[in-house]
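REQUEST ID: PR-0412
SUBMITTED BY: lab tech R.K.
PRIORITY: routine
TASK: structure prediction, single protein chain
INPUT:
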Amino acid sequence: MSKEKEVVAVVMGGGRGTRLHPLTSERCKPAVPLAGKYRLVDIPISNCLNSGINRIFILSQFHTASLHRHIQNTYNFDQFSGGFVDILSAEQTEKTNDWYQGTADAVRRNLQHLNSEDHEYVLILSGDQLYRMDFNEIVEQHKASGAEVTLAAMAMPTSKVEGLGLMRVDDDLKVTQFAEKPKDPAVIDSLAMSEDLERKLGNENSTEKRCLASMGIYVFNRTALMESLDNDMTDFGKEIIPGLLGLKKLNAYVYEGYWEDIGTVRAFFETNLAITDIVPPFDFFDEQAPIYTHNRSLPPSKVNKCAMDRAVLGDGSIVESSTITHSIISLRSVIREGSQIEDVVMMGSDDYETAAELAANEAAGIPHKGLGKNCRIKGAIIDKNTRIGNDVNLDPAGKDDGEYDHGIVIRDGVLVVPKGKVIPHGFSL
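STATUS: complete
OUTPUT:
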């Protein structure tokens, strides 16, 4: 079998995305905007394409319309490549008529689609992580080791692993034990990698013991996947994988690059803002492994009399006489004169307003799309298509998590203006 036909990829689109609410109130997690112009789903898809894997299934079920539009507008392959990116949503069949019950259940219910493609290995990925990985490396290690299942794992200091799923491995990276979110320091210490393994990994000078934490990335032999799902278990990480100990050969693949789970509002917020660093932890400028997304025909951004520091500015934006610090400004964002924003992720708009629409807004006292004049915004996520009036002040400092006037939400200490909300002139929070 040719290399191109060896692997099919499955991207888990997640469930309701409750930890990312309200960003997921009208879209699924993979469709959440990222870094001024991308979507979360672009990360695993781009990693696949850069690794020569072009047969990709995305499993999702909640608020999939925007995800469908993005995939259809972005990932179009010629008829000779054999490549595709297909979305498989939960569907009624003779056997099932309900939602996906978990990651394993989602894959189980789509085995007929996977098996319609020639393959030897199935690569299972998460749809809400930011990282760059050459999947050829984990697949080649999987084949060389003779493993039936290989788990990607991050090597992390023992002081930083609380709340993570850990594994113990021998010096040949064979998995011998799992521990789900251990808290006992003695248990964590017992799971640490040996000095011999650290030397093999080129980390013999480490000052602190390290453990291997599961990344939720798996490579299965085709047969092993079929056999592993021949039951009623619903989740890979909590049920399927631990249940395979002693039944299948499980190996770990140690990944030591940048990796961030973007499952919560705080993590999403901080991960986006980190992209504005002088040397960001994740490099979107890597020409050898680009991140692909929808190629929009937008004009260049226009900036007039502004002060900007550590700012990322998306295409088609207009910024007038404002100060922007440590912020992400996404596609088609409009920021009017006299405004100051700091530590803000602004997701822009789906379209521009015409002169007639702007005049109608003025007559009705409705704020224009974007940010009005003389606003002060700090520590916030401003979702798409919002209208924020003039002289608006928003800052979550000193305020409790919860819901506030005009649909504003504070979660994980981050103020969120949900998609399409209207914040009237002069409002302060």
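NOTES: The chain has two domains: 3-274, 302-423.
REVIEWED BY: pending
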